[in-house]
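Moderator note: this is an archived Q&A kept for reference. The question asked for a predicted structure of one protein chain; the sequence and the answer are reproduced below.
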Amino acid sequence: MIVVHHLNNSRSQRILWLLEELAVPYEIKFYQRDATTNLAPPELKDVHPLGKSPVLEDGGLKIAESGAAVDYLIRTYGGGRLEPPAGHQREHYLEWLHYGEGSAMLPLMLQLYTMRLGDAAAPLKDRIDSEIDNHLGYVEASLAGRPFLMGEDFTGADVQLSFVGEVGRAFGRLAGKPNLTAWVERLHARPAFQRALEKGGVYALA
């Protein structure tokens, strides 16, 4: 049985959603953020030294990086679904799969952290804003005329990059970006996403 170590309001919601898309049975082990610090509880360090979520366990395998978990689940349980076949399209798919955490999330996380600094963050603000606009603008342009990142077909890349769209929307950065806005709404309307919300609990970014 697959086990997902799931932290509330975190990237691990994507893994629950993907498992629902794939119709693969799984178990959830729940963890709650500290109400004061918003940090993950120390118990997660007993699961993986980083103390982060998601952590996916499948038999003797343990994966603690969401992109790797998405890739593993689709390759292992997808049966050819949710990823393109070999060729140029697959390389573009892999680029999107790594882009979310490798590039797009960095300025959004910097904004999250510097928001707590108040005026002390002023020297960084313009650069962070510029990078957020750059990345969200890139995704917005890439979605022009297509419902999903790879075109007509929903894939694991949409699952993985969804967090970028959700955080961007939570920060009020999707104004003037109709393609991104519609894409996030389209993803959230999927029955599998709704089932994952019911099982995973409150998710403030939905």
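Archived answer notes: The chain is about 50% helix and 10% strand.
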